[in-house]
């Protein structure tokens, strides 16, 4: 195991996060939509999902974004 691998494994162990491909995919999809402003259809294509519902499963909605969006609605 190389130095970077040993250091990375040690750091991950210290912060007690289980890294999985699911977590990486969820993080990537959430960042693409919440932080980079991609729409869900483009994100679906990047993720390689055949159905948009699968992309939605991985997406974590930022509650602050929802609050800001709600403020923009004129009632």
Short description:
With 75 residues, the chain is an all-alpha fold.
How helix-rich are the residues, as a percent range? over 70%
Mean pLDDT across every amino acid position: 80
Helix and strand succession?
HHHHH
What is the rounded distance between the termini? 60 Å
Main sheet, how many strands, which sense, barrel?
A: none
Give Rg in angstroms: 17 Å
What class do helices, strands and sheet pairing give?
mainly alpha
Count of domain modules: 1
Overall morphology: flat
Low-confidence stretches: none
Number of helices: 5
How many β-strand stretches?
Answer: 0
Strand content: under 5%
Structure description:
The chain has one domain (3-72). The protein contains five helices and no strands. 71% of the residues lie in helices and 0% in strands. It has helices at residues 3-15, 21-35, 40-47, 52-58, 63-72. It has 75 residues and is mainly alpha-helical.
Structural topology:
Blueprint: H1 3-15, H2 21-35, H3 40-47, H4 52-58, H5 63-72
Helix pairs in contact: 3-4
State the main characteristics.
mainly alpha, flat
């Amino acid at each position: 195991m190389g130095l970077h691998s040993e250091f990375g494994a040690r750091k991950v162990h210290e912060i007690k996060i289980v890294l999985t491909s699911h977590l990486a995919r969820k993080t990537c999809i959430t960042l693409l939509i919440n932080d980079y402003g991609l729409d869900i259809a483009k994100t679906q294509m990047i993720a390689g999902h055949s159905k948009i519902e699968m992309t939605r499963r991985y997406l974590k909605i930022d509650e602050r974004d929802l609050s800001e969006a709600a403020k923009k609605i004129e009632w």
